[in-house]
Automatic annotation (TrEMBL):
Name used for this protein in its record: Protein nucleotidyltransferase YdiU
Binding residue positions for ATP: 100, 102-103, 122, 134-135, 192, 199, 279
Names of the cofactor(s): Mg(2+); Mn(2+)
EC assignment: 2.7.7.-, 2.7.7.108
Gene for this chain: ydiU
Reaction(s) catalysed by this chain's protein: L-seryl-[protein] + ATP = 3-O-(5'-adenylyl)-L-seryl-[protein] + diphosphate; L-threonyl-[protein] + ATP = 3-O-(5'-adenylyl)-L-threonyl-[protein] + diphosphate; L-histidyl-[protein] + UTP = N(tele)-(5'-uridylyl)-L-histidyl-[protein] + diphosphate; L-tyrosyl-[protein] + UTP = O-(5'-uridylyl)-L-tyrosyl-[protein] + diphosphate
Entry binding sites for Mg(2+): 270, 279
Active site residues according to the UniProt entry: 269 (proton acceptor)
Function: Nucleotidyltransferase involved in the post-translational modification of proteins. It can catalyze the addition of adenosine monophosphate (AMP) or uridine monophosphate (UMP) to a protein, resulting in modifications known as AMPylation and UMPylation.
NCBIfam families reported in the protein's UniProt record: PRK00029.1
Length: 520
């Protein structure tokens, strides 16, 4: 393997001086050295050749035993020092103290084609930050993370990536529903890829401990390697750093809302400073358009991380990040201004996103009302978000199409579309048709534009569950099928039309298809 290995993180930041891999509070250090746990019978299930090429792996590398052993923890590449990061975080709104990489181990950094990437294993064994956990991962959660990382990238959503998915050959004990019923499941490891896995919590932990020296060291490192265009470290560049993190976070969440993605666990330790979607746990895509939906069983009562609240949580998390940076800036006003800009920025970008989904490209002062009324009607009866917006592009502005006919396949209970609900839909389509007459582009051009922002295929939970069920039986063909399907989510793919469908009724309440737990 001819990789261009880098060691910036471990050579430029303070390390935990204790080498023993024991659970502990790690002070004045950004990471701890730790080696992955050896696996008994590793087997590679799938590799993303797209990301492998970006890292500099050849096809020969991907077929080699060396690649398998490195990506399953059995071999530590020569002259590399795997490590786990120290960070804290706010979980469900409460400060949780030290958290850290409890089941993620960073192997090394690779530079290729003027880009640098960190290669990380998730599920490769315990670290000083594992608390009561074993640091391992199971096949079902690993399949979900692997498929979703790559699916999100092809949707145009900023995200960490995934290189490989492998079985460990070892069984892992898990209580899937947290109901006291433990069972053994197949162990697995995903190799995750990102320019950096730094999160808000990496900075929060040092601010919370009053360790401003290490905080400054980490922020200066971050500027040097990930925000070098902001110049040398200073109070001004720290402010600009916060502003850019704000903008990236805002853009990421706008993309989530655009495709109907719900993260499920927007704790501050799951918020990337690069504005990347990170840590795929109990995520899900909206089936029925529902502002109140969350895929997380842990959040089922309070619904803190529900679909409609994701923009607010992004802001709340940025407040915590601002508090962490404040000791280096010592001036609240510029930080408060940036946070205010998030609010106005979200309103504007959300509006622009929704008008693009509706194919409205001319300026009209009544568009906001048209959008708000649509969002209200969408919730009167269970209406599939993905199918609705995709099929809406077939509506003709010359009034030759009937709106309800165009979108009828999106309704889960078509019999409910009568009386007042039917009238509200007809009234809305009358206004929509009148508004489209103001658009200069043709129906065909508008359809093409709408189809670049409204995906036809997303990774619905039931689809992932079908792949998981097959994989449990040793059949991995569905993983490959979905992986390739989701590489072109905006294309028609007539041969894959079966996946452009509402969630089947059998999946409505099935474990893994509706809601999931925080951890596995």
């Amino acid at each position: 393997m001819n990789l261009n290995i880098k060691h910036n993180f471990t050579t430029e930041l303070p390390a935990d001086p204790i080498q023993k891999n024991s659970r502990r509070q790690v002070k004045e250090a950004c990471f701890s050295y730790v080696k992955p746990k050896k696996t008994s019978k590793p087997k590679l299930i799938h590799v993303s050749k797209d990301i492998a090429e970006q890292l500099g792996f050849s096809d020969v590398d991907l077929q080699s035993e060396a690649f398998l052993n490195i990506m399953t923890g059995n071999t530590v590449l020569e002259n590399t020092t795997p490590y786990a990061m120290c960070y804290g975080g706010h979980q469900f709104g409460n400060w949780a103290g030290q958290l850290g990489d409890g089941r993620a181990i960073n192997l090394f950094d690779v530079e290729h084609q003027n880009k640098q990437w960190t290669i990380q294993l998730k599920g490769a064994g315990e670290t000083p930050y594992s608390r009561q956990g074993d640091g391992l991962a199971v096949l079902r959660s690993s399949i979900r993370e692997y498929l979703c990382s790559e699916a999100m990238h092809h949707l145009g959503v900023p995200t960490t990536r995934a290189l490989s998915l492998a079985l460990t050959g070892d069984n892992v004990l898990r209580d899937m529903l947290y109901d006291g019923n433990q069972a053994y499941e197949k162990g697995a490891i995903v190799s995750r890829i990102s320019p950096s896995f730094l999160r808000f919590g990496n900075y929060e932990i040092f601010a919370a401990r009053g360790d401003h020296k290490t905080l400054k060291t980490l922020v200066d490192y971050t500027l040097k390697h990930h925000f070098s265009h902001l110049g040398t470290p200073s109070k001004e560049s720290y402010i600009q750093f916060f502003n850019e993190v704000m903008q990236r976070t805002l853009d990421m969440i706008i993309h989530w809302q655009r495709v109907g993605f719900v993260h499920g666990v927007m704790n501050t330790d799951n918020m990337s400073i690069l504005g990347l979607t990170i840590d795929y746990g109990p995520y899900g895509w909206l089936e029925g358009f529902d502002f109140g939906w969350t895929p997380n069983t842990t959040d089922a009562q309070n619904k803190r991380y529900r679909f409609a609240n994701q923009p607010n949580i992004g802001l709340w998390n940025l407040y915590q990040f601002a508090n962490a940076l404040y000791p280096l800036i010592e001036d609240a006003k510029p930080l408060e201004t940036i946070l205010e800009n998030y609010k106005t920025g979200f309103e504007q970008k959300s509006f622009e996103m929704m008008t693009s989904k509706l194919g409205l490209f001319e300026v009209d002062d009544k568009d906001l009302k048209l959008i708000q009324d649509l969002e209200d009607i969408l919730q009167l009866s269970e209406t599939d978000m993905t199918i609705f917006f995709r099929n809406l592009s077939n509506f003709k502005k010359d009034n030759s199409t009937i709106g309800l006919e165009v979108i009828k396949d999106a309704f889960y209970k078509p019999d409910e579309i009568n009386g007042d609900i039917k009238q509200q839909w007809q009234d809305w389509f009358d206004r929509y048709q009148f508004r489209l007459e103001k658009e200069s582009m043709s129906d065909y051009d508008r359809k093409m534009k709408m189809n670049t922002v409204n995906p036809k295929y997303v990774l619905r939970n039931y689809m992932a569950q079908l792949a998981i069920d097959d994989a449990d039986k040793g059949d991995y063909t569905r993983i490959d099928e979905l992986f390739n399907l989701l590489k072109q989510p905006y294309s028609e793919q007539p041969e894959n039309e079966k996946w452009f469908a509402k969630r089947p009724e059998w999946a409505r309440h099935k474990v893994g298809c509706s809601m999931l737990s925080c951890s596995s």
